[in-house]
Amino acid sequence: MKFKIIIIFIILLIAVNASAELTIKEYLKDKNNRDVAIFISGLAVGMGWVNTELRMTKRQPLFCIPEKLVLNVKNYQEILDRLIQEMRETRTSRDDEYTVGLILLEGLKETFPCKDNTQ
Q1: What sign for the dihedral angle of Cα 41, 43, 45, 47?
Q2: Considering 17, 26, 50, 102, which has the largest number of Cβ atoms within 10 A of its Cβ?
């Protein structure tokens, strides 16, 4: 009985985790949906907290947004759209199964690179 409960728990964890990420295909289909905007906002806030932790522990941040620049969901979506377009132009296959989180992180790193280890 205990074994069955553990198996059911693992299956539920996998199912929840599998649907927790938004793919490029899903993003492009529903990018004007309020829920997608909230999801992207949450990703951006989380990435910002990671950067804060890296700075507080004297490590290189992942990206360096200028201090006086305030980004909103529309800005993050523009970064996503630009990177998705670049991917489609440079790759031979469509990469619609990549996750929005990965693409957003790469877009932020490309758009706001850090100059040195002191930022």
Answers
A1: negative
A2: 26
Q: Which of 96, 93, 86 is nearest to 26 (CA)?
A: 96
Q: Which domain holds residue 55?
A: 23-111
The answer to whether position 98 is within a domain reads yes
Q: Domain count for the chain, please give it.
A: 1
Q: How far, in Å, are 25, 39, 83, 96, 106 from residue 91 at the CA level?
A: 16, 26, 12, 12, 16
SS3 readout for the chain: CHHHHHHHHHHHHHHHHHCCCCEHHHHHHHCCCHHHHHHHHHHHHHHHHHHHHHHHCCCCCCCCCCCCCCCCHHHHHHHHHHHHHHHHHHCCCCCCCCEHHHHHHHHHHHHCCCCCCCC
Alpha carbon 73 to chain centroid distance? 12
Asked, for residue 87, whether it belongs to a domain, the answer is: yes
Q: pTM of whole model > 0.85?
A: no
In a domain? residue 88: yes
